[in-house]
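User: Here's a chain of 127 residues. Predict its fold as tokens.
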Amino acid sequence: MRAAAGAWAGARQGGGGGPDLAVEDLIAFGLDPVDAERIGRIEDVDDDAVEIWPEHEAVVRLFLALSTQWRVGGMAGAPLGIDYASIETTGRLLGIEVTPAVFEDLRVMEAEARDVLLRRIEEAANR
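Assistant: Prediction complete.
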């Protein structure tokens, strides 16, 4: 689960001629487009695929569906975490029962993704 969250937060470097999804995501988090471009070019994450264990598939699906529900703050628009009010509704629409265990797994993924995103912002600021 942590690898999936980390990959979501940092491994999508674009390529293949398509749009740079990491940059688009950072702009969606509220970062200035110039800063998002600078951060999106950081090449410190491995591009290998992430294996999702069957018992984690539901929480990974839920986490990905919540990708537009992050709260951001500060001048840089740093990610604070997922808007918890949207979790149960999103889970219900996906047919995922949000049990205490699913919620805890989601929080583990959220923490990993937030750490990766904040690290990338810090690295870009220090360039």
